[in-house]
Amino acid sequence: MYKDGIGGEHYYLTVEEYKYIQQSLNFGGIPTYLIYDKKGALKQQFTGYPGNEVMLKRIEVAMENPDKK
User: Fold this and answer.
1) Tag placement on the chain: N or C end, fewer CB within 10 Å?
2) Cα radius of gyration rounded to whole Å, the chain
3) Which tens digit of pLDDT belongs to each residue from 1-40?
């Protein structure tokens, strides 16, 4: 846990930018996660954080099975 807030990079969007991203990536809310395989193919997309263990498993599956969804 970060003492001063959430770590990482953060981007603030205008309403117009948010709508554009939402429509372009076809998601309904934040947080939405998109998991791509090593070839750059979208393997999973889901809204809401499922927890560390589930997230790690989803990433591992995408990396191990590049031809399966």
Assistant:
1) N
2) 14
3) 445 566 678 788 899 998 998 899 888 888 888 898 888 9
Alpha-carbon distance of 57 to 60, in angstroms, equals 5
Give the CA distances from residue 24 to residues 6, 20, 50, 67, 68, in Å, rounded to whole numbers and listed in that order.
Answer: 26, 6, 23, 24, 23
Which SS3 state, helix, strand or coil, does residue 15 take?
helix
Residue 66: asked if its preceding bond is cis (omega within 30°), the reply is no
Per DSSP (E only), the strands in the chain are 32-36, 42-47
Determine, yes or no, domain membership for 25.
Answer: yes
| pTM summary value | 0.61
